[in-house]
Amino acid sequence: MTDIGDMMQSLGRAAKAAAAELAFATSAQKEQALLTAAEAVWAKRDEIIAANAKDMEFATEKGLSAAMLDRLMLDEARIGSIVAGLKAVAGQADPVGEVLEEWDRPTGLHIRRVRTPLGVVGVIYESRPNVTADAGALCLKSGNAVILRGGSEGFHSSTALHACLVEGLRAAGLPEASIQLVPTRDRAAVSEMLTMIDYVDVIVPRGGKGLVGLVQREARVPVFAHLEGIVHIYVDAEADPVKALNVILNAKTRRTGICGAAECLLIHKDVMGTIGQGIVKALLQAGVEVRGDAAVAEIDGVVPASATDWGCEYLDMIIAAKVVDDIDAAIAHIRRYGSNHTDCILTEDDAAAARFFERLDSAILMRNASTQFADGGEFGMGAEIGIATGKMHARGPVGAAQLTSFKYLVEGDGTVRS
Predict the structure, then answer these.
(1) pTM of the shown model
(2) Which residues of the chain have pLDDT under 70?
(3) What is the DSSP letter of 371?
(4) DSSP 3-state assignment of 110?
(5) Max Cα separation, the chain?
(6) Which of 43, 105, 188, 283 is most buried as measured by Cβ atoms within 10 A of its Cβ?
(7) Could you read off the pLDDT of 23-51 as tens digits, one per residue?
(8) Domains of the chain (ranges plus CATH)?
(9) Which residues, other chains included, contact 203 with Cβ-Cβ below 8 Å and sequence gap of 6+?
(10) Distance (Å) of CA 268 to CA 273, 336, 365
(11) What do you get for the CA distance between the two ends of the chain, in Å?
């Protein structure tokens, strides 16, 4: 076995041992660990920003796009958000041991279904160092040990944040191996983690199509897939023009590099000449490159779309735009080109919104709201480990509760089966 293999096996053994203790760690211990970690992150913010500067230099030399550099960058405000996320998770109710259902049987048995940790979670992610804190916090809150493998471009930032999490664990008397960071940029570590069935209970990939595809192809461990965010917004015939304009500009331009950013605009033919034109022109004025079908491309400044623009995650100041005959045509387009992540309808028509919600199966469906809200923190989860687009028990933002399974506790009184 290679040195990388030995190292990953060692991390796995330590994580499994830590998970056994975390399963019965008290709520107070977990809260103390996270609050101490939050204090450490804020106290060491200058060190973290200095570490991030090294990563930004490395990433710039690698030729990362402006949107990817934005995902990587940490400043005092973003560190403040990380601290707020750690405190929010700390303050949430502990999901472990929560009674989901409880009933009695005629045989005299009393049965409870209660939340229980998954065990060891492996998180593989790119670019965004805040995932180090978010994933570490959520796994700890849900009683899971976690092995974090961040992207090579965020190596120094993640290392600095991880040290703060370990400081919290130590203060709370919890195993330091509860939150481990793979200490190498070597990609062989990813391949090793994907096959560690003796130690890892679930893998969460968080990144681009290439990373998620690799994980889904090679993993022997179950996967919570965080697939690319090919996010559609449909402007219905009954859309409010002011709401539509504000929502679309925010959904596309607030932060282009996040998975909730809008990537495709679908416009009902009846409002293309009014609301649609205004929206497209506003996007162009905001510096967005609009790649439109024949109808949209009649607007000066629009680039004609190619076949590859449908179903594309740009993560940049680019959006595809198309005119559709009706809501069913919009639904058909999203079914064909979407990624089951987040899709939105802009309408004042309740029946149209109900049809959109019923006939699409994206993890998150929205009405008259920016898709940039597709985020666990915005959902009240404190933070998220990713947006699960698969059909396992965790869908949409994966918070602490979604990182649990359940077990049945059955009690009798000398009860025997006849």
Answers:
(1) 0.82
(2) 1-2, 226-227
(3) G
(4) strand
(5) 81
(6) 283
(7) 999 999 999 999 999 999 999 999 999 99
(8) 3-224+398-411 (3.40.605.10), 231-373 (3.40.309.10)
(9) 121, 122, 123, 124, 193, 194, 215, 219, 221, 222, 223, 224
(10) 10, 18, 18
(11) 54
Question: What does the buried/exposed string (b/e) look like for 124-134 if buried means 16 or more CB atoms within 10 Å of the residue's CB?
Answer: bbbbbbbbbbb
Which candidate, 236, 226, 194, places its Cα nearest to that of 126? 226
Nearest to 138, CA basis, from 158, 165, 157? 165
Average pLDDT over the chain, rounded to an integer? 93
Instruction: Report angle CA 296, 302, 303 to the nearest 5 degrees.
Output: 105
Return the amino acid letter for 199. Answer: Y
Q: Which of 258, 58, 37 is nearest to 160 (CA)?
A: 37
Distance CA 370, CA 13 (A): 43
Packing angle of the helix pair 155-172, 45-62 (nearest 10 deg)? 150
Q: What are the φ and ψ backbone dihedral angles of 236, each rounded to 5 degrees? A: -80, 165
Identity (one letter) of the amino acid at 267?
A: I
